[in-house]
Amino acid sequence: MQSRNGKAKYVPSEETAEDRDARTLFVGNVAVEITKSRPMQKQLKRHLLSFVPSAKIESVRFRSVAFKKPTAELPTDEDGKPKKSRTHDRERTASWRADQDGEAEPPKSFLTPQEKKRIAFIKQEIHDGVDAVNAYVVFAHAPPAGDRPANLPPLPEVMDPREAARECPREADASVFHERTLRVDVVKKDATVGGAKSGTMAGDPKATVFVGNLDFTSKEEDLRAFFESVVRTERGEPGEGADGESSGSEEEDEAAPRSRAWVKRVRIIRDRDTQLGKGFAYVQFVDRECVDEILALEEGKLKFAKRKLRVQRCKTLPGGPKLTTAHHKSPRTPPSAHPKSRPNSNPRGPSGAPGSSRPRPVALVPVRVPKGNPELGAKLAHLPKDERKQAKATDADRVARRLAKKRAKVLAEKGVKSRGGEKDRERVRKPRLPGGGFTKDRGSDKPKKRIRSGKAISKMNTKK
Predict the structure, then answer these.
(1) CA 201, CA 185: separation in Å to the nearest integer?
(2) Are 451 and 400 in contact (CB under 8 A)?
């Protein structure tokens, strides 16, 4: 088998489509200029091979390219022909020409969507509003040693393509190439690993936010830079204020200190035909506290391209499995299978919940805001502004107080009041009297009402 440049490439005859996907990488957020330049495509290959030096790349295919002219399939009528206006006049003209020339006009053939895309790609008719494409990189198999002449030295060892496709995303994901943060993932994953599709977001859903009301021409790099600046304003540089914080999962706890940015991944959902944005996206952070900082901000601060953003915490990731609750309805059993119930038996279970499968509502617990240190300002008064800011960001008590206040603000919108640590009072039970009642405080006695006799009441009710 030969490639486009004439070089022979070895592919095992027993390889299936799934085996080919297992050695294929998905690379997202690639600059559209790379599709127009062969030298830049070679630079992309060298960038990926720098993480797996002993591997080789067989081919690179570009997909999700936005073209100026529509390439989707035209709507057809019952006969399978494209719909056009004034069909009756066209048929009459075609029959008149057939009578004059004596030969019928040959039927028109229309281009398929694949042919339209191929022609538009060759002519470089790419939409100006979209500056990113996706790429699929296929790693090559090592050529068999029997085909090489004996007088030539042996070729260097080539890494197994499936192993290269598994190792490369671990290091190449979130790497920067031509001022763009790449999204690198393997196309075909093992069922034991998680079986996600290419381009989907993996990780903790609670560390991801849904962003709505975006402009259709929004770009991933601009959205990444916006949220990165917002989180850095609230939490400081990555690794400063989150050293002692828990991120919610073991993988993120290990990845957070060595990550250079708070934003982990950005994915803008695009239309399948035009490749323009649909107006919403998903932004994934290194831990859940970044999401708490974003949700606690005022709506006026979340403005991107002069538009107010709608931000919500995600329950599931795009393309990932849906979350199912732990409460499932138990199958019905016949009445004879149930044990005889006692007349005074409690219909609720041991936990106090009814016997039905309805989940109990989760009570909103008020947040306890810790007391601040009043001496912190006096200690930092002699320091410059930048050093004071850095010292405040690294103070664990101050960071915990700020997060507690922001959580209390979110709960206050739901009607839950916060509790201050210094205002908590213990409940004291009043002692019982020998007769069985409770003691009364003299100061709390209310003035007794006036007691009227029956004669006075009847006199008040009589008409004058």
Answers:
(1) 9
(2) no
Assess contact for 421 and 370: CB atoms under 8 A. Answer: yes
CB 174 within 8 A of CB 14: no
Q: Supply the angle between the helices 288-295 and 396-413 in degrees, to the nearest 10.
A: 50
- Predicted TM-score (pTM) of the model is 0.59
Which H, E and C letters describe the chain, residue by residue? CECCCCCECCCCCCCCHHHHHHCEEEEEEEEHHHHHCHHHHHHHHHHHHCCCCCCCEEEEEEECCCECCCCCCCCECCCCCECCCCHHHHHHHHHHHHHHHCCCCCCCCCCCHHHHHHHHHHCCCECCCCCEEEEEEEECCCCCHHHCCCCCCCCCCCCCHHHHHHHHHHHHCCCECCCCECEEEECCCCCCCCCCCCCCCCCCHHHEEEEECCCCCCCHHHHHHHHHHHHHHHHCCCCCCCCCCCCCCHHHHHHHHHCCCCEEEEEEEECCCCCCEEEEEEEEECCHHHHHHHHCCCHHHCEECCEECEEEECCCCCCCCCCCCCCCCCCCCCHHHCCCCCCCCCCECCCCCECCCCCCCCCCCCCEECCCCCCHHHHCCCCCHHHHHHHHHHCHHHHHHHHHHHHHHHHHHCCCCCEECCCCCCCCCCCECCCCCECCCHHHCCCCCCCCCHHHHHHHHCCC
Cα separation of 28 and 184, whole Å? 6
Q: How far apart are CA 141 and CA 147, in angstroms?
A: 14
Q: Determine how many CB atoms are found less than 10 A away from the CB of residue 224.
A: 21
Task: State pLDDT tens for residues 107-128.
Answer: 667 788 788 888 888 888 888 8
Is residue 274 within 8 Å of 70, Cβ to Cβ?
A: yes
Predicted confidence (pLDDT) per residue in 130-152, tens digit: 888 999 999 998 887 766 777 77
Please enumerate in sequence order all residues whose Cβ is within 8 A of that of 29, keeping only pairs 6 or more positions apart, or say none. Answer: 132, 180, 181, 182, 183, 220, 221
pLDDT value of position 323: 52
pLDDT of 397 = 81
Q: How far is CA 157 from CA 47, 130, 194, in A?
A: 20, 40, 30
Q: Which of 201, 265, 187, 235 is nearest to 29 (CA)?
A: 265
Q: Low-confidence residues of the chain, pLDDT below 50?
A: 191-195, 241-259, 324-357, 359, 422-424
Q: Contact, 367 vs 404, CB < 8 A?
A: yes
- Cβ neighbour number for residue 47 with a 10 Å cutoff: 16
Contacts of 194 by beta carbon, 8 Å cutoff, 6+ apart: 202
